[in-house]
Amino acid sequence: MSEERVKYTLSEDQIPTHWVNLLVDLPGDPLPPLHPGTLQPVGPDDLSPIFPMGLIMQEVSSEPQVEIPEAVREVYKLWRPTPLLRARRLERALDTPAHIYYKYEGVSPAGSHKPNTAVVQAYENAQAGIRRLATETGAGQWGSALAFACSLFGLECEVFMVGSSYDQKPYRRSMMETWGATVHRSPSELTAAGRANAAHPTGSLGIAISEAVEVAAGREDTNYSLGSVLNHVCLHQTVIGQEAAAQMALAGEAPNIVIGCVGGGSNFAGLAFPFVREVLGGAARTKFLAAEPAACPTLTRGAYRYDFGDTAGLTPLMPMYTLGHDFVPPPVHAGGLRYHGDSPLLCGLVRGGVVQARAYGQNDAFAAAVQFARCEGIIPGPEPSHAIKAAIDEALAAREAGEPRVILFGLSGHGHFDLSAYDAFLSGQLEDPEFSEADMEAALERLPDAPAIA
Amino acid sequence: MSEERVKYTLSEDQIPTHWVNLLVDLPGDPLPPLHPGTLQPVGPDDLSPIFPMGLIMQEVSSEPQVEIPEAVREVYKLWRPTPLLRARRLERALDTPAHIYYKYEGVSPAGSHKPNTAVVQAYENAQAGIRRLATETGAGQWGSALAFACSLFGLECEVFMVGSSYDQKPYRRSMMETWGATVHRSPSELTAAGRANAAHPTGSLGIAISEAVEVAAGREDTNYSLGSVLNHVCLHQTVIGQEAAAQMALAGEAPNIVIGCVGGGSNFAGLAFPFVREVLGGAARTKFLAAEPAACPTLTRGAYRYDFGDTAGLTPLMPMYTLGHDFVPPPVHAGGLRYHGDSPLLCGLVRGGVVQARAYGQNDAFAAAVQFARCEGIIPGPEPSHAIKAAIDEALAAREAGEPRVILFGLSGHGHFDLSAYDAFLSGQLEDPEFSEADMEAALERLPDAPAIA
Asked: Which of A181, A182, B109, B215 has its CA at a distance of 20 to 30 angstroms from the CA of residue A96?
C-alpha cells in the first residue's frame, strides 16, 4: 500500500467569494418565464409577492459572477469547503484505468447540498424583514436544509412534505422539528391546492409546491422558498463546482466527464456549471452527464415546452423539458428526483447538446450505491446513487476502451434517512416502477396553452 | 459580521503517524487484568483465543507511542483528519466570554469516532488470517463501525445488538447490513449467555458482549472485537486528541477544560489522553471532565473494584469503577453509554484525581443538544449531548466568573439514527430513568470474589 492521495481538502478561506452565473454564458437571449394568467414575460415585480428583491435580482442578473454576502460565507464555514475524494478502492474493485473523483456534500448539517442555497434564501428574506418561509420538500432534504437555515436567521419555517416521503421518512420530519420547523403532510387540508388533490394521497413535489406558494401568497409576512429549478438556486449551488475545480487542480487533473443526478437540476448545476463555463468559452472539452430516474425521466423522455412549475398552475410558466405539470411520479425512494420538470438553464444545455441525459432504474441505482458503500464507506442517498451508477458505467467503458479517463461525480448527500430503501433492496423487495407512456400522453394533453419553443 | 475563523482543517498528510500510549505515563505499575477462573494476572497467551497477537501486543505495550500501520492510515484518509470547529454561535447565544471548541467525529462513514479503532481491529485480524469477527453493539455505533471496517478488509462480521437499541433503531441494523454484516437481536437464542438472559428482553451491553465472546471462543476462524474499554481501543482513539491539539495550536489557544462523554471510555480517552500526557508531564494544567448518564453513573456512583467486563463472567476481571457486571441500565437513548464499567485506564485517572466525572439526566442532555443544533447546525448523538451539557455548564460558569476560559469538547457522533429520541424530547415524552441505589447494592453483592484495590 503506497502513500496515495485520497482526499483533497481546502481551508475555509478558500470558500468561493462569488457564485457563477451561467445565465450570461448561454447563446442568445434567455427564454423568459411567462405569467400564468397573461402569458406575458414575467418581470421582477411579478415575483415580489413571494420572493425578496435580493433573490429576484439574482434570478435575472446579467453579471457573470455574483458576490456572496459575508454573512452567508460565515455560515458556509460550518461545513464548507466540502471534501473531494478519489475513489481509489472503487477504481480497484472495477479494475478500471479511470480515475474516479467525487465531491461530497453530505457533510453539511442537513446532509446534502441543499443548505448552500437555503442559507442564502433565509438570509435574504431576513434582510427583507420577512418573518416566515413556506416551502415544500420531497425526500426531506430541502425541508431540512431550510429548517436549519431558518434556525440560524431567526425565521419561522413551514414545510409541506410530499406524502409518500412523510410516511417513508418520519425521522426527516423530526430533524426539521429539531431545528424548530413546522411540518405538514402534503396534500394537506390546509390549502385549496391540497384539498383539490386529496385523490393523490402519496402527493408529489408539484402538489406540495402549490400548497406552499398558496400559503406564501396569502400572508404578508411570509415568503416562499424553492429548493431547486430557479436560476438563483442553481447560482447558489455553484460553490460546489468552483471548489471541485480547485481541488481537481490540487490533484493535477481535469475531469473528462462530469456527472450529477437531476431532480430539479440545482445539484447538477452546482457541480457542473463552473465546468460548463469553461466548455462554452472554448477552454475545455468536457462531457456532462445528467442522471435521472427511469420512473421520472424528464430529460430523456419529456417534451421541451412551456409548463407550470407546480401542479395547480400558480407559478409562472417556464421553458423546460416536462412530463406535464400534473404528472404524479411513482413513489420511488429518490424523492428528490420526483419532479415533472427541470431547471430551464439545465434544459437549455440539454437542448443545446452540451449536457447528455440518461435514466436509470431504482434497483440499478441501489446496486451501485451498495458497491460504492462497501468500497468507500459512505452510504449514499438514493438520489446521488443514480450518479454513482452513471460513474461506474463510465469507468467500465473506460476499461473497455483502455483509456485512463478522469470522472468527477457529485455525491450530493448521504442516505442515513433512506435505510428502509436499502433494506428493501437487500431483501429483494425493491420495485422498479415503470414510467407510463400513456400517463405521459395524457399529461401532455393538459399542458397549458403557451407559445411553442423553437 | 467580521471575518471570524470557525473551522480548523488539516490535510490528510497531517493524520498522526503514531498513537499515544498513556499506559506508560501512569504512576506505578498498571493493575493487571485477572483470569476469571484462576484470579491470576492475565498474560498475552490468555487473550489469544479471541484476539490477534498484534492487538494483544498493543494492549500491553510499554512504548510511549505506537506506530500506525500504513494500511490503516490509508483508510483513515477516507474521513480523517476530522474538523475542529469553534462554536461561535453557541458562545453568542450563551453570552459567555468562554471560547468553545468541538472536535467532530461524526464525519466518518459510520457517523462516530468508532471507526478509528474498528479499522485497526479489522486490519490486524485480517493480517492474522482470521475470517470473521463477532462483536456486540449498543446504540449501533460500534456495530456499524466494525461492519464498515470488515467490508474494507474482506472479513465477515457478526453483530449482537442490544435488544432495546435493536427495537429503537432499525436503520442502524440496515446500515450494518448494507456493509455486509449479519445482525442478531441480543439476548438471542444463539448462545448460552443469550438464553440465560431471556428474562432481560431489553438486553444490555454486558449480555451482548457475553454472546459475542462465546461465539468467538467457540470458532477457530472467528475472533472477538471490542469497541471500547480496553487499552488498545483507547490507544487507537488518540488520533482524535492529537489532531485536536494541532488544530488548537492553529487557533492559537490551549484548552483549559477538556470534556468528553463516557460509556466504556474510549471516546473520552481518544480526545483527552494526548492532553493528559501534557498534564502528567507537568507541561500543562488542564481540567478534564467525563460526562456520563445519570441512569448509568459508573464513575460518579460506582465502586472501584475488580469486575467482569461482561454479564456472564467470561472476560477477564478488570480494575474499574463498576455498577456490577450484571447491572442492566435503564434503556436511555444514549445506548453507547449504557455500560456497567469503564476503561481501567480512565478509571485510574478518575481515582487519581486527574479526571473529574459528572452525571447528567437524559432531558438535560437533550435540551443542550437542541440548543446546540439550533446554533451550530449539527444534530448530535445522545451520547455526546452529555458532553455538550457539560460544556454549556462550564461556559455559563465562565460567564459567572467573567473569565475567557477555553473549552474543548468531543462531539463524537451525529444523531441521525436517534431522531425518535428527539421526537420524544420535543413532545415532552422523554423519561429520566432513575439510577436505583437498591439495584446497585444488589449488584455489588454479586461482584466476583477478587482482590480489593488499594
From this structure: B109
Point out the residue among A109, A148, A373 whose CB comes nearest to the CB of B179: A373
Among partner residues B111, B374, B417, which is closest to A179 by beta-carbon distance?
B374
Interface ipTM above 0.85 = yes
A-chain residues within 8 Å CB-CB of B12? Answer: 5-7, 9
With respect to residue A51, please indicate whether it lies within any of the assigned structural domains: no
Higher-scoring residue by pLDDT: A138, A278: A278
Cβ within 8 Å, pair B78-A6: yes
Distance from CA of B66 to the nearest CA of A (A): 19
pLDDT at residue B2 above 60? no
- Residue B314, in any domain of the structure: yes
Grid coordinates representing B331?
434503556
**Which set of grid coordinates corresponds to residue A62?**
446579467
User: Degrees (nearest 5) of the Cα angle A253, A258, A261?
Assistant: 145
Report how far apart, in Å, the C-alpha atoms of B270 and of each of B105, B224, B236, B243, B266 are. 11, 21, 7, 10, 6
Point out the residue among A5, A108, A416 whose CB comes nearest to the CB of B417: A416
Instruction: Look at residue A358 and give its three-state secondary structure.
Output: strand
Q: What is the pTM of this model?
A: 0.96
Of the candidates B109, B170, B370, the beta carbon closest to that of A378 is on B109
Q: Which residue of A has its CA nearest to B370?
A: A178
How far lies A112's CA from each of A165, A270, B279, in Å? 16, 12, 41
pLDDT category, A335, cuts 50, 70, 90?
A: confident
Spatial CA neighbour of B161 closest among B175, B443, B320: B175
**Which amino acid is present at B225?**
S
Q: What is the DSSP string of B10-43?
A: --GGGS-SEEE-GGGGSSSPPPPPB-TTT-SBP-
Residue A160 maps to a domain: no
| R_g over Cα of chain B | 20
Mean pLDDT on B310-326: 91
Q: Hey, are the CB atoms on A5 and B11 less than 8 Å from each other?
A: no
Query: Which CATH number covers residue B287?
Result: 3.40.50.1100
Side chain identity at residue A39, one-letter code? L
Q: Which of A7, A100, A104, A173 to mutate to test the interface with B (most CBs of B within 10 A)?
A: A7
* Structural domain includes residue B267: yes
Q: With bands split at pLDDT 50, 70 and 90, how would you rate the model's confidence at B1?
A: very low
Rounded Cα distance between A75 and A85, Å, is: 23
The secondary structure element, H or E, covering residue A276 is helix A266-280
How many other C-beta atoms lie within 10 A of the C-beta of residue B358?
18
What would the grid cell of residue B295 be? 441512569
Q: What is the mean pLDDT of residues A219-230?
A: 95
Q: How many CB pairs under 8 A join A and B?
A: 134
Residues above pLDDT 90, as percent of chain B: 85
Number of compact structural domains in chain A: 1
Cell, residue A186: 402534503
Mutate to test the interface with B, among A15, A374, A417, A427 (most CBs of B within 10 A): A374
Q: Are B107 and A107 in contact (CB < 8 Å)?
A: yes
